[in-house]
Amino acid sequence: MARGKKQNPFAARKRQKREIGNPPDRRSEPYKEIERDNACFIKYYQMQQICASAEEWQQFLAKIRDNLPVTFRVTGFKDEARALLKIIETQMFTEYTRGVAEINGLDDVQQVEHPLCLPWYPNGMAYQLQLTRKDIRRSEPLHRLHNFLIVETAAGNISRQEAVSMIPPVVLDVQPTDKVLDMCAAPGSKTAQLIEALHASPEQHKIPPGFVLANDVDNNRCYMLVHQAKRLNSPCLLVTNHDSSFFPNLVTTDVSGNNKSILKFDKILCDVPCSGDGTLRKNPDIWLKWNLAQAYNLHGVQYRIVRRGAEMLEIGGRLVYSTCSMNPIENEAVVQRIIKDAAGALELVDASHLVPGLKHNPGMRHWQLATKEVDTIFSNFEEVPESLHTIIRPAMFPLPEAEMATIGIEKCMRILPHMQDTGGFFVAIIEKRRALSFEQKDVQDLEQEKASQTDEKPAEETKSAPWGPQRKRRRLHGYKEDPYVFFSEQDADYDALKQFYQLDEAFNKRCLLTRCQTERKKNIYYCSEMIRNLVLNNEHNIKIINTGVKTFVRCENRHTLNPYRLAQEGLQTSNAFIGHGRRIQVERDDLILLLNCQDPTKPPSTHDLKPETQERCKELCVGSCILKYVDESFTLFIVGWRGTSSLRAYVAKDETVHILRMLGGDVSKFEVNKYEAARNKEAANGDAEKETEKEEAEEEAAEDATRTEEQEQKQKQDENDMEL
Q: Roughly how many angstroms between the first and final C-alpha of the chain, as a whole number?
């Protein structure tokens, strides 16, 4: 190969494949179950005495080797949450008991264990099924339950989440006025809980005064986080991409926009990266790779994240530190270190009253460290050989007994798998009593620091016109995001929107934004005033991945007076500000008729609707509108479109199925039985094969007949030739 010429990796792989031949196809080999055993793991945790007795230890080992049951929670802030919970507890759980009885060959459904309502989750909105993910996914009798979970999750009405993972947001005790930071937010299940808590009082706040800032260091996982959180359609969410341990100070301004201050958060969640041995039941592959080196490597990262979180916390604010690990090196060792370094500014508090009925152990006051293979045990740093001093640090050992007593480490919560059939988890609740000695307080210092960094770094590139999300340019740390362009005071599009939808004066037009710099706006988003403040003051300081909820979408129609339609995603925000002139109240039968129409080219005619609905339609001009349905226990608001002689519902398929279910309508045509579909496909393939065989047989018979006829003709010709 010529000097300096790069080797083609694909060609090299092809040559290698020719030399060694084709490797065996792994898919043809039978799947081998992972052996749920790890000698170092068992030896280490037995040494730590995480269980009080030998009997409890055996219960722990038996449970952690078992599969994890499925848990889910209902999105509590939505108006129809209670009605959906009632459907789950009747229809779906009836389907559940019938399916489980059929799988286990039971004649009586009363023998099936009923799903468990988690006693510590607020308002009884979370349930644990006595089934694993595999059971639900691979059992035909449970296909309706599986479809229900998929559809309602996509519609944002339920969330499938591990039970112990729900604890940190609950004990964080978020209120609608709180400024909340989720430091390590991806994949987003806890962030969704924080958003739910923020929107818990819709009757008090049209839009909550607080917000949730969700951050993650991994760019790819940030998009997963956006997908998860966007199901809740909150205008009070901001997603950022930054290293949590070096999270920058964010600046906010007052109403006048002149006085700047460093933002302090009321509530901070530090669900830090960890070894994850508490998730062994869900992720059995951890059995194969677990070792103590993971905990030693992560201890420093975990401490830096919680320290940075403590700096950004408001005095009187609350910080929750949590891991899905059972290792004291990642748990108590980190907590004792930050409490000690804070020198009285931080205090551990007991929050067990927020999770009544949750079984847990207090934080550990004694633990030991060991080598990677757990063949040498260390009780203090003096016993550690010098060769391990860079791996095992003094702060990882427990503090002296007298110091430990003042910290109150027993206020932490340790949840072990055998206590209530869950995963393993650790939670510590910390409150800030006064400012830390090492935190930055002065905005002038912050401005000077920024100025010095600007002098050292080359000038940043100016914003250029975006190419759209489908053509984002890939960078070293992810994509370059499109800009956030807020509406100006004199925006012609807003004036047209205000007139058409009769928008209330309380609707802040300055909080409308687009992701493009062109005059022709495609999608218009809405965010809260506080989020707008954060974006404008910090977009050059931190990478913003996403914010705002889609509220208006360009939908040009020659018959309508306004080129923008309402978006269902943003309706829970915009609904409170839209006037009566664009609303139609519909009856149950009318709404079911509209939802069952799946062909957008053939919407239902207004003549098919009830007379009251027809009269209201006549009062509206062509364009987007809100369909309102009032039930005894809930009220639904749906985006509709009033055509010249028709009316249609403008909702996605998953939302359609959800609403039909709430109305007691027939959803069978949306149900998919993948097992029956597979059988039909196999039968069709079998019929096709039989048809092919039949055709081949007929062709062969025809060919034989042709050959016979040709032979007879030849024989006759030969006879005629002989006679001549």
A: 80
Distance CA 712, CA 710 (A): 5
Asked whether 215 and 240 are in contact (CB, 8 A), the reply is yes
Which listed residue (324, 511, 527, 617) is catalytic?
324
Which two three-digit tokens encode residue 190? 């806890």
Write the pLDDT tens digit of every residue in 404-420: 999 999 999 999 999 99
**Tens-digit pLDDT profile for residues 561-598:** 889 999 999 999 999 999 999 999 999 999 999 999 88
- SS3 track for 404-462: HHHHCHHHCEEECHHHHCCCCEEEEEEEECCCCCCCCCCHHHHHHHHHHHHHHCCCCCC
Do residues 576 and 205 lie in contact, with contact meaning Cβ atoms separated by under 8 Å? no
* Average pLDDT value for the chain: 87
Q: How far apart are CA 459 and CA 472, in angstroms?
A: 22
| Cβ neighbours, 10 Å, residue 697 | 10
545 neighbors 226 (Cβ within 8 angstroms): yes
**Minimal CA–CA distance to 608: which of 586, 583, 629?**
586
Residue 43 has pLDDT above 90, yes or no: yes
- pLDDT tens-digit profile of 472-492? 444 445 667 778 899 988 888
Task: Write out pLDDT tens, residues 243-295.
Answer: 999 999 999 998 777 788 899 999 999 999 999 999 999 999 999 999 999 99
Q: Which residues are CB-neighbours of 678 under 8 A, at least 6 positions away?
A: none
Q: Average pLDDT for residues 316-338, to the nearest whole number?
A: 97
Fill in the amino acid letter for 483: P
Is 222 assigned a catalytic role?
Answer: no
Helix (H, G, I), strand (E, B) or coil at 465: coil
Pick from 247, 267, 262: nearest CA to 431: 267
Neighbours of 99 (CB within 10 A): 23
